[in-house]
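STRUCTURE:
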């Protein structure tokens, strides 16, 4: 449905929060009794993700504050700020700590791998929890205007959705790497494999952090509304009787469900001034009806330059 508020209920965040909080403590316990570097990296990862979900929930709450004198267009971009903070936390707290842990263990006194059943049991349970959270996040993404998964991820302007998808994908990949590391370290009696697994987990988290930071940066500096929205607004204006042409609208994302639109139209030469005003009113009403995420519209009637063909 057009105009659906994408972060109306951040169920993906709540699902990820519950999953990460449930397994972080267990991972730390098993890491403490087994001495596994990869398991400790996974515990750090789950703890960081738990904190990130809390930061995203804070961002969602603060972004919903009403407009005030200093913020006449509302506080929607606050969610993008907290999304950027989440990316930095993943980079330093998740990726950096896991890389440090792996490098430190690689140069430390070798320790025999132990408690393999405990490790695999916790990793298996964590995989189930993370997979459930991932499915919840994917369903939240796919509800976006009925698009497919990858199209919805590219079009999403909601860090409370796409950040959780990225975190859960990284978590699932990290769990596979951790399991491979502890098994191979046990089978070949080579603790360095466990340390390398920790470093690989860190590299995965650093990569995810870079991707998320670039997405948040784009939204913070003023990313446009998605292409379908821009094209739809232009068609609506161009179909209005008495309007000769409509420019491609200028749009900017103010929040996951807030877009500001500036649009130039060219009326027919003989259209009276009163009729122009009525046409603008109809265009604005039609746009708002079709796209509830459009929170502010500025339509100006003027001549639109056309490039000559050939």
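SEQUENCE:
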């Amino acid at each position: 449905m057009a105009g659906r508020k994408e972060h109306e209920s951040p169920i993906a965040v709540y699902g990820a929060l519950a999953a990460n909080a449930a397994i972080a403590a267990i991972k730390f316990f098993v890491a403490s009794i087994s001495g596994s570097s990869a398991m400790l990296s996974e515990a750090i990862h789950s703890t960081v993700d738990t904190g990130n979900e809390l930061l995203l929930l804070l961002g969602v709450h603060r972004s919903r504050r009403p407009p005030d004198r200093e913020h006449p267009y509302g506080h929607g971009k606050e969610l993008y700020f907290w999304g950027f903070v989440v990316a930095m936390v993943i980079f330093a707290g998740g990726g950096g700590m896991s890389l440090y842990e792996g490098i430190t263990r690689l140069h430390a006194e070798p320790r025999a791998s132990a408690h393999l059943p405990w490790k695999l049991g916790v990793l298996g349970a964590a995989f189930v929890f993370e997979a459930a959270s991932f499915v919840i996040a994917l369903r939240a993404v796919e509800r976006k205007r009925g698009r497919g998964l990858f199209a919805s991820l590219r079009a999403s302007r909601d860090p409370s959705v796409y950040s959780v998808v990225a975190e859960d994908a990284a978590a699932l990949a990290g769990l596979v790497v951790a399991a491979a590391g502890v098994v191979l370290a046990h089978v070949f009696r080579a603790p360095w494999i466990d340390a390398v697994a920790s470093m690989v987990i860190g590299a995965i988290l650093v990569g995810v952090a870079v991707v998320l930071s670039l997405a948040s940066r784009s939204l913070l500096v003023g990313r446009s509304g998605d292409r379908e929205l821009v094209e739809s607004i232009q068609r609506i204006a161009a179909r209005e009787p008495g309007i000769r042409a409509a420019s491609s609208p200028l749009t900017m994302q103010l929040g996951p469900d807030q877009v500001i639109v500036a649009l130039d139209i060219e009326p027919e030469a003989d259209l009276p001034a009163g009729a122009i005003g009525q046409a603008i009113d109809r265009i604005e009403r039609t746009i708002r009806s079709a796209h509830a995420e459009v929170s502010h519209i500025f339509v100006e009637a003027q001549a639109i330059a056309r490039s000559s063909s050939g």
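REMARK: The radius of gyration is 25 Å.
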